[in-house]
Amino acid sequence: MSFASTLRLHGFQGLQRARIETLQVNVGKICNQACHHCHVDAGPKRTESMTRETAERVLKLLRDTPDVDTVDITGGAPELNPNFRALVKESRRLRKRVIDRCNLTILLEPGQEDLLEFLRKNEVNVVASLPCYTAENVDRQRGRGVFERSIRALRLLNREGYGRPGSGLSLDLVFNPGGASLPPPQESLERDYRERLREGFGIEFGHLFTITNMPIRRFSEYLVRIGKQEHYNTLLAGSFNPGTVERAMCRTLISVSWDGRLYDCDFNQMLEIPSTRHVSIWDINSFSPLARDEIQVGDHCFGCTAGTGSSCGGQLS
Question: Is residue 11 part of a domain?
Answer without folding.
Answer: no
